[in-house]
Specification:
about 230 residues; alpha+beta; Jelly Rolls; Double-stranded beta-helix; 5-stranded antiparallel beta sheet; 2 domains
Length: about 230
């Protein structure tokens, strides 16, 4: 197969041509799609003609398939596959737009769904008073960040600086630009704004840290500037 991938916007999304998901056990295709998903977060895979069960099988390329808690749009052939349509209407005739309202889907579950590329779970400390941001107070956001044993957080950069208080730091280290920084329990690490960084857990326990960032300020200035490496 001759796979072609076109970026769809500056930050997110790509369309994929030249893939038949019915043949998705082809390891080269799996690797290409996994890499593209990791890079673009949303993939539009063109020209597919799949039954619900074939769609379900091909979705496994990206990780373990999980049950959506809202089963309203589940297909009868396979209830792990849901449809999206612009033809559904409310009783008053208004078009139903899936996902129109503020929602979190499953990202706040005790065990959130993960793709093969996902590492770590974070709890953001926020309040409805600071919506639409997820800040704790207008200029500052805080979170409890975790990373499973053996996990690697993908290298990224953002304009906000981070103060990271290490709570569970056994055999955890960060890479900031090309410098390796070992973590210690109770010690605060500074990640300067714009510098490339990633976190790595080689310990036997889940890494845990409390992070304070000035992303709130950047949110309102529209200067967040987040990017993966
Ligand atoms: Fe970061």
């Amino acid at each position: 197969m001759n796979i072609k991938i076109n970026k769809l916007s500056e930050h997110t999304g790509a369309e994929v041509f030249g893939v038949d998901l019915k043949l998705s056990s082809d390891q080269r295709v799996v690797n290409e799609l996994t890499k593209a998903f990791s890079k673009y977060s949303v993939l539009v895979i063109r020209d597919q003609n799949l039954s619900p069960n074939e769609f379900y099988e091909s979705a496994k390329i990206f990780g373990k398939v999980f049950q959506q808690h809202n089963k309203k749009f589940a297909l009868k052939e396979n209830d792990l596959v849901h449809y999206i349509s612009n033809k559904d209407k409310f009783e008053d005739g208004k078009i139903y737009i899936p996902g129109e309202g503020y929602h979190t889907d499953h990202s706040n579950d005790i065990s959130p769904p993960k793709t093969k590329e996902t590492a770590g779970v974070a709890i953001q400390f926020s309040t409805p008073e600071t919506l639409p941001s997820r800040n704790t107070i207008p200029m500052i956001n805080t979170a409890l960040n975790t990373l499973e044993s053996g996990g690697d957080q993908r290298a990224h950069r953002h304009n906000g600086a981070a103060l990271t208080l290490a709570i569970q730091a056994e055999s955890v280290y960060s890479k900031i630009e090309n410098e390796k920084v070992n973590w210690e329990d109770g010690v605060v690490l500074i990640t300067p704004g714009t510098e490339l960084h990633s976190h790595h857990n080689r310990g036997s326990k889940r890494m845990m840290s409390f992070v304070v960032q000035d992303e709130g300020l950047h949110f309102y200035l529209r200067t967040t500037g987040f990017s993966w490496n």
